[in-house]
């Protein structure tokens, strides 16, 4: 019996090595042309998209469909949908779609596909799209349904979507309770609203909001598709007054504590705008205070999404470090200005040692910051072993799904197949899913003892493994990824 088991193990290892060799050769061959590379990477399991704004996932086609359902027309002056009656500048959707000039203008107004010709500023074009998207009347449930479907088609196992997780009634209640606010007396401000955080009404309202989104999304979902798991990241507007920032931060962190599906909080809007620059220090102070008061919930900040053309040295030299050290950020969104940080080397070493993942968004950085190729810190982070993942940021607006982010990274940085696997594994390892990891101390060569000799290609788990997976969402997704990876690689071994 022992001899049979040994033979099976050896045979399994030999088959695994054969698959690994074959898939590496197939990947290198696919790099000869972009269509071949897209074909290869479309089926490659990608782990997670950890940085994607839900409202930025809306394609122009999604917005058009929603506008039709809502009985809207189209305003040629604003390039947005409207409930106004037909007139000189307001036409029906059928008239807009049937006119080649109008339809092209519509598609360009709802994406950055032609930003160089349309506005000359990718950043302006990018941020102007959001209001147009909202004019369609599309809701979060519809957005979620669309992004889940597209993720499924790309073999993505998990999504963490930046979304408005604070219900309006909760925000109103907290806002009314905060009568006095003094940045130098945060304890006094917190005392005025502390009891609201744990109230059943607050927690139920958050859960009901997310339930509503998912009821719409999963009702419309195709049961034949293997859907990714979904979690949500709340957001705070960094341009608002400090009192309002405090209320938004409290309610967003309360949402994290209220529902396991809400896993983190981030900041949105450009860091280099005057209001963001003026408020940064106090915003970090508020986040640090609330993080300690509210049970140390996950925080994952947009930080260092900056360029020399738009930001001063004072802004460039500390945004990432202070977001980690004071703002308590466990992941960094973008981090493109890392080279300008004061003592960047020590910061990079710290990020590697602490396991602070950087959510890289290559296409977004190219459009908004004009940062790409050698100007991007992709290789700098890798040099210092800082964990990184590939993400879309706003794949509806950029029209660059996660598959294309892997394509772009491969072409620009001549990635090996092992690099792809590491990027995908990173995205799940540093996700905010609850539970234990498949790996010891983040080392992908050291699975936990229960899976040390497991053959993921078999597709079967022991009873003990099944029980462990069932109670640990992160482990479950990592096991699903390894199984999907084994199936993908086996296709090339024949």
What does the model show?
By secondary structure, this protein is of the alpha/beta class. It is built from 23 helices and 13 strands. The strands form 4 sheets. It has a 4-stranded parallel sheet. Strands 8-9-10-11 form a 4-stranded parallel sheet. The chain has a 3-stranded antiparallel sheet with strand order 3-2-4. A hairpin with a 2-residue loop joins β12 and β13 (443-447). α2 packs across α20, α7 crosses α17 (362-369) and α11 crosses α12. The model is unreliable at 1-14 (pLDDT under 50).
Summarize the structure.
This protein has helices at residues 2-30, 34-43, 60-69, 93-98, 100-109, 115-118, 122-134, 140-153, 168-177, 186-197, 200-219, 242-258, 274-293, 313-316, 319-325, 344-354, 362-369, 378-383, 395-398, 402-413, 417-429, 463-470, 473-490, and strands spanning 48-53, 73-75, 80-82, 90-91, 158-162, 229-237, 262-268, 300-303, 331-334, 357-360, 388-390, 439-440, 443-447. With 494 residues, it is an alpha/beta fold.
């Amino acid at each position: 019996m022992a001899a049979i088991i040994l033979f099976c193990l050896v045979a399994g290892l030999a088959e695994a090595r054969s698959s690994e060799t074959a898939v590496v050769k197939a990947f290198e061959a696919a790099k000869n042309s972009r269509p071949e590379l897209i074909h290869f990477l479309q089926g490659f399991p990608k782990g997670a998209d950890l940085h994607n704004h839900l409202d930025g996932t809306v394609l122009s086609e999604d917005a058009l469909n929603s506008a039709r359902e809502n009985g809207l027309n189209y305003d040629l002056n604003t390039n947005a949908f409207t409930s106004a009656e037909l007139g000189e500048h307001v036409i029906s959707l059928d008239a807009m779609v049937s006119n080649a000039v109008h339809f092209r203008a519509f598609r360009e107004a709802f994406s950055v596909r032609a930003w160089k010709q349309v506005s000359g500023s990718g950043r302006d074009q990018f941020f102007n799209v959001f209001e147009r998207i909202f004019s369609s009347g599309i809701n979060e449930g519809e957005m979620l349904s669309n992004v889940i479907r597209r993720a499924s088609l790309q073999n993505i196992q998990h999504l963490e979507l930046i979304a408005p997780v604070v219900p309006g009634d909760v925000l109103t209640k907290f806002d009314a309770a905060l009568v006095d606010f003094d940045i130098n007396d945060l304890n006094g401000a917190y005392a005025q609203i502390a009891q609201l955080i744990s109230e059943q009404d607050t927690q139920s309202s958050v859960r009901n909001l997310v339930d509503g989104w998912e009821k719409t999304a999963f009702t419309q979902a195709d049961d034949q598709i293997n859907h990714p798991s979904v979690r949500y990241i709340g957001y705070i507007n960094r341009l608002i007054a400090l009192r309002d920032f405090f209320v938004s931060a409290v309610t967003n962190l309360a949402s994290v504590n209220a529902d396991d599906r809400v896993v983190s909080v981030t900041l949105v809007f450009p860091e280099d705008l005057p209001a963001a620059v003026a408020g940064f220090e106090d915003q970090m102070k508020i986040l640090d205070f609330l993080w300690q008061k509210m049970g140390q919930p996950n925080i994952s900040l947009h930080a260092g999404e900056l360029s020399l053309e738009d930001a001063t040295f004072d802004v460039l030299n500390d945004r990432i470090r202070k977001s980690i050290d004071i703002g308590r950020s466990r992941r960094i969104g973008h981090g493109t200005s890392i080279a300008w940080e004061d003592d960047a080397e020590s910061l990079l070493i710290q990020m590697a040692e602490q396991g602070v993942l950087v959510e890289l968004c290559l296409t977004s950085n190219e459009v908004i910051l004009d940062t790409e190729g050698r100007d991007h810190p992709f290789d700098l982070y890798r040099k210092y072993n800082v964990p990184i993942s590939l993400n879309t940021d706003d794949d509806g607006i950029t029209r660059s799904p996660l598959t294309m982010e892997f394509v772009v990274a491969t072409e620009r940085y001549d990635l090996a197949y092992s690099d792809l696997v590491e990027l995908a594994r990173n995205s799940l390892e540093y996700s905010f899913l609850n539970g234990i990891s498949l790996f010891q101390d983040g080392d992908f060569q050291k699975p936990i003892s229960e899976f040390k000799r497991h053959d993921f290609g078999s597709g079967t788990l022991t009873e003990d493994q099944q029980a462990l997976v069932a109670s640990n969402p992160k482990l479950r997704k990592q096991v699903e990824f390894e199984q999907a990876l084994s199936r993908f690689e086996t296709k090339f071994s024949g």
